[in-house]
Amino acid sequence: MRVLACVNQKGGVGKTTVCANLAYALSKQDYKVLVLDIDPQGHLGQSFGFFNNNRPGIDALLKDDASLEAVTISLSDTLSFIPAGPTLQKLESMPKGKGRGLLLKKAIHQPVNDYDFIVMDCPPSSGFLVVNALAAANELVVPVTADYFGMSGLSMLMSTVQNFERVLGRYKRKWFVVSRLQKRKLSEDVLKKLAHYFDDDLVPIHIAERAVLAESPSYGKPVMAYAPTSSSSREFASLAQHIIQRGEKIDDKQGSTSRESLGA
Fold first, then answer.
1. What's the whole-number average pLDDT of the chain?
2. Whole-angstrom Cα distance, residue 196 to residue 189?
């Protein structure tokens, strides 16, 4: 099972937009996908038609008040959703203690779980909720804007990620996704810097800033459902395909290495 945390400690980078539409695009490729709203703001649900955050969700799961199945909402044959829940904000300030950072990992890795992908929308912070998401994930999706503040926020995030990798081991893959891209000279300069620093981890598909991406959540739909022939829909379909194909190549390579190390 591939568990992707959509994370950036800086707000305003299009994180929720990338998370919602990537999850939907993966489900349209006939993969079974579960998308989790780990941000207390609960905005992710609006992309799937949930405008009321009073239903128990991640909050109940982390408090062990409900099972994974009890808080999961089926959206289609291939896509399911767990909302943030009304009390998730209170958990964000929970002190970090032994075992508390693994609560989400334990909750989602259950024998009954047969999802191909779990995609998590994380809050722009470094508290209890992000700690749980980073511990549960085996891949990171990092939306970043092509501007000065985007680069600055990315530097802070990478420091946090490196600390986690020292404890938990390296993530299988990090996907840096340029979002809210605008055509201007500064964007071109930042893209060159991102390519230099992150090389193969920088996804070649960029998500441009378009009105349709801002409109679709107000209709309770991902952009591929709201405007299926739009350029934004094509970008997210390509993003999903890139993550699927590159992820499969990585798994094949790691599998071969493991067999060689065992003398197989």
1. 88
2. 11
Residues 2-48: pLDDT tens digits? Answer: 999 999 988 889 999 999 999 999 999 999 999 999 999 999 999 99
Q: What is the pLDDT of residue 252?
A: 52
Predicted local confidence at residue 255, as pLDDT: 45
Answer yes or no: is pLDDT of 251 > 70. no
Q: How much is the pLDDT for 53?
A: 80
CATH number of 2-261: 3.40.50.300
Q: What is the pTM of this model?
A: 0.90
Please provide the DSSP assignment of the chain as one string. Answer: -EEEEE--SSSSSSHHHHHHHHHHHHHTTT--EEEEE-STT--GGGGGT-----S--HHHHHTTSS-HHHH-EE-SSSEEEE---TTHHHHHTPPP-TTGGGHHHHHH--TT---SEEEEEPPSS-SHHHHHHHHH-SEEEEEE-SSHHHHHHHHHHHHHHHHHHHHH---SEEEEEE-SB--SHHHHHHHHHHHHHHGGGB-S---B--HHHHHGGGGT--HHHH-TTSHHHHHHHHHHHHHHHHHHHHHHHHHHHHHHHTT-
Alpha carbon distances (Å) from 217 to 73, 179, 225? 18, 17, 11
- C-beta separation of 41 from 256 below 8 A: no
